Amino acid sequence: xxxxxxxxxxxxxxxxxxxxxxxxxxxxxxxxxxxxxxxxxxxxxxxxxxxxxxxxxxxxxxxxxxxxxxxxxxxxxxxxxxxxxxxxxxxxxxxxxxxxxxxxxxxxxxxxxxxx
Length: 116
Ligand code: FAD
Known about the structure:
Elements: H1 10-26, H2 34-50, H3 54-66, H4 74-91, H5 102-108
Helix pairs in contact: 1-4, 1-5, 2-3
Residues 10-11, 14-15, 17-18, 22, 51, 55-56, 59-60, 82, 85-86, 88-89, 91-92, 97, 102, 105, 116 line the site of flavin-adenine dinucleotide (FAD).
């Protein structure tokens, strides 16, 4: 298994970034104001320009063109990031995550107390 590098390598960076993105979506408002929706759209656009793995960011920007961020609710945004992550999983030939279970993984925690 890859060790956590210092500075971050692309695995540690990816893992940490998904952790932030899924957690941010899990705590996004159920009914975001139009300002919050606009800000989240901007965050995603800017994130896609500066994510410090150029080929990753480029593919993500390409995916964004046909997958408009669902910023209208917490559950919409959570599902959207889950789909974005599954797109990368597919590319890397990793198992796809069941997006119905997003809250168990990133908000409430698995019933058995495990973490992953
Ligand atoms: P990760 O994929 O980092 O996942 C961490 C945890 O998230 C998993 O253990 C699981 O519990 C949970 N999880 C898995 N799938 C989902 C899902 N769909 N929804 C919610 N939770 C989930 N790496 C590359 O090599 N090439 C790329 O082009 C590339 N593009 C990336 C683009 C972005 C925007 C980001 C943030 C990362 C990208 N990465 C890319 C990194 C890659 O996605 C992984 O983070 C990295 O390979 C480490 O994988 P991991 O096995 O630790 O699990």
